[in-house]
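ping. complex inputs:
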Amino acid sequence: MATFPLPPGSTIGILGGGQLGRMLALAAARLGFDTAVLDPEPDSPAGRVAALQVTAGYDDEDGLRRLAERCEAITFEFENVPAAALERLVALGAEVAPGPRALAFTQDRVAEKRFVREVGAETVEFQPVDGLEDLISGLARLGTPALLKTRREGYDGKGQAWVRDRADAAAAWDSIGGRPAVLEARADFVRELSVIAARGRDGAVACYPAGENRHAGGVLRTTLAPAPDAGAVQPAAEAVARRVLEGLEYVGVLGLELFELADGRLLVNEIAPRVHNTGHWTQDGCACDQFEQHVRAVAGWPLGPTRALVPVEMENLLGPEVERWPGIAADPSARLHLYGKGEPRPGRKMGHVNRLRPPA
Amino acid sequence: MATFPLPPGSTIGILGGGQLGRMLALAAARLGFDTAVLDPEPDSPAGRVAALQVTAGYDDEDGLRRLAERCEAITFEFENVPAAALERLVALGAEVAPGPRALAFTQDRVAEKRFVREVGAETVEFQPVDGLEDLISGLARLGTPALLKTRREGYDGKGQAWVRDRADAAAAWDSIGGRPAVLEARADFVRELSVIAARGRDGAVACYPAGENRHAGGVLRTTLAPAPDAGAVQPAAEAVARRVLEGLEYVGVLGLELFELADGRLLVNEIAPRVHNTGHWTQDGCACDQFEQHVRAVAGWPLGPTRALVPVEMENLLGPEVERWPGIAADPSARLHLYGKGEPRPGRKMGHVNRLRPPA
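pong. complex structure:
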């Protein structure tokens, strides 16, 4: 059994070897930890900076066992890891954080929204959709346009379709594969904010200043943090984050996507139970970034400071945009972060750049 | 043949798998590079965060060949790598930076001091010592006490002996093993400064603000940077660094240890042709730290900014001092860096802490 706080030299396991796992592994190494990454693909971005990569599927009993035996604590880099994998790791005696409870709520958009409302926070109006009839009745109740999303496994705009009117319903239902879904009323928001927040094993909560996000085609393009003029909503955003973290008995970092309405109310759009793309600005804007914060929480260390030292604009480098690296490298106000991925397929997250802004 | 600047995805080789190699590998990973580490010990601190560790001696032909074949550029983490290893890598077609020329000058304390004087900078008075007679004549010329150092392979106070008077000479000569040496006059300095400086493949030079260093028992304990009241000597320190970098046709980061005299003159005490312990403060005090800077230079990228964003006091954690990690982890002004080493033997560099100071 691991005892917390984990001493340096312990090994932290990461399910998933993409860029989030890579940046977690780099942060863990700075604190003197080893990492072991489980990923189905050999030589994953995270595996290439880890002490060990276990190349296995998330349902591979032998791979999960190897990870559990090697690691004093295990976390994951994305929420579409099968819940069964976490449960198996727990059964093998592993210390998994965030725990299966957080994953269960956040893997199902309906369960997530119900949970958010139960802890006293707001969401858009929504309706579960198990068939075309539900969709049609939902459109009547929520109005159009409305957004149809699969209950599970969507991210970066995948598994989503706008339904403009009732005549659209069947096509939209088909386009998401006719899978269990949720229909969401259109939120009349003025901007999208996100808050990166953490809860330690001791129950302490820490929130970074909210960032303002811009998307294109369902994919995040930029985060500006701290969000301009967010002073008024920061306390409300932190209060929501605290209720969510405590309600999930959460350990680790999560990303909370929020819609800010014209009257200042905040709706929770999505909970990502992991380090989050909208928190990458913390790498160059804060003393302790979201990756170190997550490692601290998972390892049972005290949480680190979350104050913004300098305003940052984070921009994702998607697909061939990564070819702009020479110009970014030559810009003294730009901090470049690349993920060690090969093929720059269109839309693929290849890296990001944090631009340090003069303080306001 | 590699062409510069190296694109992300290239592999950078590092001779030596200790903490400096580890922090270089982490910086390289942030920029999207892979690293390959050659070290005689398996599972070295750097090897555990590298895509590949070649476990081989520095004189192992097969190991050097594997490194040369895998890497687009190769560097080293400490200056006691055999010059023959670098020459062999160059012969194998590898792009090695810094080059063998820099190593040749800095591996021999006499050649180094002569070089420093040739480029127009100052050193303490010194005399080469090849035997007891040289030592005795040197003491007569330079006065006592004087410092006897082996010409090669000393670091952290090893291979050094103070000679208090002529009666001490034979014992001092024996204590350093009767090897070729240099006798240095005592410098009547007010403090020790160091400057971390870099030169790119394009010849550009960049210097960080000087730091003020405190040693105990020949080992660095703290660096305070920017050094208090160093504004007056910074231009002179930068001028010396530039002459040294250009004289060595240097590519990469080096550490220049300086004695500041009461009249403001600077003597060059030592040139370390590598990232340097007195530059660790840059990790939390600057946007681009010395490790990223070195990777940029080696990869033929533009050098990064060197301005201090916040004053930092760096403290080394030696041997069992690393057990203080829980208190350091709980201090929001302290940034902890641990090296992933096992046994905390007395005096062993296990990690360091950067304390962020309020701006002066």
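The CA atoms of residues 123 and 267 of chain A lie 5 Å apart.
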